[in-house]
Write a structure and sequence with these properties.
Blueprint: E1 7-11, H1 16-27, E2 31-36, H2 39-49, E3 54-57, H3 63-77, E4 82-85, H4 101-129, E5 132-136, H5 140-143, H6 149-169, E6 175-181, H7 187-194, H8 202-208, H9 219-229, E7 240-243
Parallel strand pairs: 1-2, 1-4, 2-3, 4-5, 5-6, 6-7
Helix pairs in contact: 1-9, 3-4, 4-6
Length: 256
Amino acid sequence: MRLKDKIIFLTGGSTGIGRDCAEAYAREGAHVVIVARNGDASAQAAAELGDGHLGFACDVSDGAQVKAAINKTLEHYGRLDVIHNNAGIATPSKPVHETTEDEWDMAFNINLKSVLHTTRHGFEALKTSKGCILNTSSMVGVMGQEIHAAYTATKGGMNTLTKSMALDYAQYGIRVNAVCPAGTWTPMLRKWCAEQPDPASIERYLDEIHPLGYCPEGDVIADASVFLISQDAKFVTGHIMHVSGGAELGYRRPNE
């Protein structure tokens, strides 16, 4: 019960990595507030966690909606211990010159500007609780990736933002870290796969980019996330934790 009675505000928690994190947090004793654009899915996910959890609609790209969601959390629980910025989109799968301005803005507003909104409106509560912030980033924000320019730019920005926030908020006892998956099977990844030139070959590719030999499910990210927001990581801040099966470790011979 490493997170007993912690109040966790989790964006994008109704599916994928966020859903796995919500389940892990609940098992560790936390009260989880799941927000996502689909309010019905958020409410259902929260209900499936059992008693003591909330789920409702919130578009994280909209500052007013984020403010209202955090206020609702504080009204219900009276405190806030963790903000996990997990909501994100992986589209478009395009190089820069083919990316429209609307596509670029949508990726940045959801993946990165959302951190501005949650931090701005949750800061005072985290200051009171000496809580922490966790950002779901991606290994492509460290390494880059072809045909995925806007997404990699948002995640590269998230990594440096995490470090700057850690420096800014250390004086208040607020830790800020990021978790960096490589490939992880989620509905969003499967959507990305379908957009690739040869979708049929992508599953083998995603297994082979991880030296440990397989593309994992979201539970491995949830395990790392529990650690980073728990007291086990009380002296860890500004850390970009790779949960990647070694995907970034260097050139390898292709499997026969």
